[in-house]
Structures are given as structure tokens and as C-alpha cells.
Amino acid sequence: MAKRKRGELVKVWEYDAKAPLLSAPTPAVLNDTRGVIIATADGHVQFVDKDGKLVWSFAAVAKVSAQESMFLEQEKVNAIIGPPIVVDVNADGSPEIIFGTEHGMLYTLDSDGKKLWEFAAKGPIRSSPLATDLTGDEGLEIVFGSSDKHLYILTNEGKLISRYAYDVGIESTPARIGRQIIFGDNDGVVHSLGPKGEDNWTFETGARIVTEPLIVRLLDDEFYVLVASTNGILFALHLSGDLLWKFETGGAIIGQPVVHDLDGDGKPEIVVGSCDNFVYAIRNNGDLYWSYETNFWIASSPIVKDLDGDGTPEVIAGSYDHHIYVLATEGNYNLDYVPGIAGVVNQASYYSEVMTDEPGTMVAKLIWKYKTEGMLVGGVFLPYNHNLVMASKNGIVTVLAHRE
Fold it and tell me: CA angle, corner 85, sides to 82 and 91, nearest 5?
């Protein structure tokens, strides 16, 4: 029997960033203040506290010459596409905020929102950087790709250490395991960069990669690399670059997968959204566990967290159809398929079936559904107050909580 869930999702507060948003908020604790970092399409980074009040704002606005302006789209030149990262990169005991812009600038701010330094690439920076210790000394190094066809490695003071050239631009956030830096490029090639800048291996996915490779324990407690491609395929690779399996969706994957043991069997599942409108849960051997269909693209990373505090996590997905979907982690067989019926009306506190799959397939159970006023581009769960912070393309950040 399906488990009954009580309560509903209610809005706690709403924040207007005054400009479009292109990515999820980033949780942060700055100067003992809890909140989220929000990056806008007009080049502003805003720190908003847990009650929805603006603490500070930084304008990453490029100075563009008259000649440059002839070749640039003014509405996009300052856009921040990759979510900022919050990390103590210089080991001073206080976190910094690091992000790139469409104009090719990488900025590092202190906890008060003041610029520490900037670095100019020669093309747009459309993903989040990676902060990692490559040298073993104090502090971290910063690794990022650019549309100028280079991968950069900087010191924590913004000085260039290395720059590696490739055939095409890089919009994928790098990941690291051991002596490998792994990233995807705009031709769909996955690269494993060695400590001397050499390619350990490459793997061709067939289409542009815009998500960060996810390095996870998948089978037999061994690490594997999950790579999502805009051709709609999720690849699982050995650390040697050999293919383990692949899973095909019907649309581009532009949001990073997440990994969680959904059914409590001790084996991880992979949850990913696709621009075919579906959320998929995939077994660690590459087989489909369950799916759920929304009415438009899932263009951001799903969230798997215990939203209602009952000890059982839920799967949360934001769709371009303006809705936030909260799903049960365990799938159920769809035995009551009726042609032409896409679903049933959702009532608070009850699961409801989605009936768009073939009979006998596993589908997710819908727990709650909340309508916002914009296309959802990403979200984050705040464990200290169980709030769900969701960003919409129209610039509105909606904060929800479960209430009985």
C-alpha cells in the first residue's frame, strides 16, 4: 500500500533579484549569517539571508569599449551562468565567493562582497570553477574552462599557473579524483587531464557537455564517472575512461545528476532530469528504476532530501512548466494505464499516480506539487531549517517549507 504523506508545501518568503536568473542559488554562511548566494543574468551577485533580506550585492559589470559593443549582446555580456562557489580558497578562515561571467572574467569576493581579485580569460566562462589542492601547499588552486578553448589553473591569488589549449570551448565544470582532472568539452569529448597537462584518456559522448562530471562510488565500492551529454545520454565510465553503461533519455541533459540510495537496498540510484520533460531514477547497473513526466523541460539538477522531516527523503525537481514536483523515492508499477489520461488532480497529503508510461513500467508517485510564476532553473535544500530555495528564470526566488 502506498504510504500516505501529510501536510503541504507553503511559501515562507519570496525574493525578487530584479534580473533574470540562470542557475541555482548557492548556500552560504558568511560572517555567521546563513543564507544563499544568487547570481543574475545582468552580472550581480547577491547575498540574501535565511529570512529573505539582502545583505550585500556585487556588480560584476564589464567595461566594454565602443568597438567591443558592436560585437557583443548587451543584455548577455555580464551574465553569470554557472552558480558561484563558496569556499575558503586562501586558508584565511573565512570563505570566498568565486564565479565567472559571460565577458570572460573570473572574480573572487570576500565574505563582505568586496572584490579580492579578478582574472581575465579570452572568452566566456559559463560554468562554476573547481577549487582543489593541486600543489599540497596552503590554500587551494582554481580550475575552470572557457569558451576561448582553454582550461585554466590559477593560484588562490588569481595568478596563472597553467593554461591548456583544446580544439573547442569548455562549458563543463571540472571534477577531480586523485591525479586526474576530468571535464567535458563542447564537442562532447570527456578529458582526463594528468598532472603534467597530458590527456590520460578521452571518451567521446557525441554531443556538447555542459554539466560537471560526477565521480561516485557506484558498483562494488569502486569509483566511476557519470557524464551527462546534450544528446540525452548519461554515461557511466570507469576511471580508465572505458564505458560501463549508458542510459538514453529523449532530450538534452543540462542539469547534473544526483546519486542516492532511493529504495534502501544499499545500492545507489542516479536521479537525473531531461529536456524530454522526464525525471529518471536509474539503477547503478544502468537499468531504469522509475520515471516521472512533467509538462516541460527539467533543466536543473534534482534534489534528494527529507523535506518533511519524517526520516524518508523525497525527490524534488523543478520544471520549466513553472511547477516544483516532490516525488516518492520508491517507484510503483503502473498497472492502471488509461490511454489519453496524463494524470490525476493532485490533492494535498496524498500520492497520485502519473499515467503516461506503458502498463507494467515503474513510475514515481507524486506527493506534492507547487506552482511558481516562472521557469525553474535550480534549487537548493537548507538542512538547518528544512527550507527549499528555488530560483526561477524571471528573477524570483521562492522559499518553501513543509507544513502539517
Answer: 150
